[in-house]
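>> received
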Amino acid sequence: MTKIKKVVFGLAMLMSICILNFGCKKFLDRKPLTSTLDDLNQGGLETQALGLYGSIRNSASDPYIGDGFQSIPWLGMNGFRSDDQEIVSDPGAAGWHSTYDLFQYAKDDWGSQQVWDKHYLLIGQCNTILQTADSLKLADPGSQINIAEAKFFRALSYWDLVRDYGQIPKIDFRIYKATDANIAKSPETDIFALIDGDLTFAAATLPPTWPTKFNGRLTSGAAKTLLAKSKLWNKQWAAALALCKEVINSGIYDLFTPYALLWKPENKLNKESIFEIQASEKPGDGGLYWSWFGTAQGVRGADADGWNLGWGWNTPTQKLVDAYEPGDPRKPATILFSGQSDDPANGGYGRTLPPYTNAIYWNKKTYVSVAQQQAAGEPNGASFVDCILLRYADVLLMAAEAANETGDGTTAAAMLEKVRARARGNSNVLPPVAYVNQAQMRDAIKKERRVEFGMEFERFFDLVRWGDATSVLSGLGYQNKNRYYPLPTAAIAANPKLVQNPDY
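>> returned
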């Protein structure tokens, strides 16, 4: 296990001192977190910075923040709202299905409240680290890296929030009392300016790689990748392309082969992974270094037939099944089919699923073996599954899109081909896509992103940023206003300066 995993649990109770009281019980009135002599002797706020990695993973109760980043609330906001993912397997989740899959947003929805609260909790932790470093005038290289890590996580938090809610309060300062957080919403341009500023600093300050004991710690490549996503969102094509080329030309990352094994626990932190939320599969660690990410999406079967693997939240739709080209190996690598073999040639373990009807398709990208579950002491779950937030295939497809929008069809086609070539392997499927014109290549890239990131968390936001959400999702009840979620009722009640989003 990495040093990151070893450190964070002991810090979890300390790391939630400085947080925002937007409608949930928090610790704002406690003395804010400060550095210790041990931290300073190490050359920075090392333990506080490492604690941020644990904050986005653990998902039990306060002070854990992971519910907002890779658990059920995050799955709802980032997954269910697309046309490729849904929640139908749990009879008790009918409310979630109508809220997220059918766009009947609720202002007092528990999931949205969790996403809002937990993201601002992490922002509060980051702001505390940044203010502490500033007040102590910490300028040594170690401290600068800690500052860069805090800025990355703050940017990541705002990246989610601004896409989910639009205008939001910009809290870029340390909170000492609850009323400090009572400020009005800022324009989206101001939020993106903060995101881009934080990530620019992180990209220039974080190291490109780390020693083995720090595997998975943030790198300059991670900061550049997230910054490229921000630039792409705002149609700053040249800037996005330049950042993607820096990541590509670094030679640090590459596509992992075969595609079907990319997400397997034994391949954590592989060469394609740019940043992932880590969990541990070692016996005894599940209660300390864990995540709901895998368990929430496991096959919702029965103990009697050996398929009670999780809760079945986040299952593929028929539209996703139908989106793949004939013979695309990514289809059987992404989707488990009820009543069929798990397909050992494409990431399965030689088991046949029962003919379930609560959901006929399941997410194979979080599917683990019985042996792995038993070794971890989790026969009915998989809290050891990592959540890959940033991967190299996204860099290549962002580069393709940005190049195409700047008129560079040759580069666009070359980047697209890299992704398709990895997917096809040694087969004769997925022929190369030659550049014909910008519109044709744009359409090809859109289709490629859909199947490459099937059952991941790009589709809904891709549709929104492309301007395609209304035409694609209207049959599910989507309206243009649904690009943003209404602000949580409790957040508005706690902050008199907050105004609800338009149309809600």
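>> The mean pLDDT is 90.
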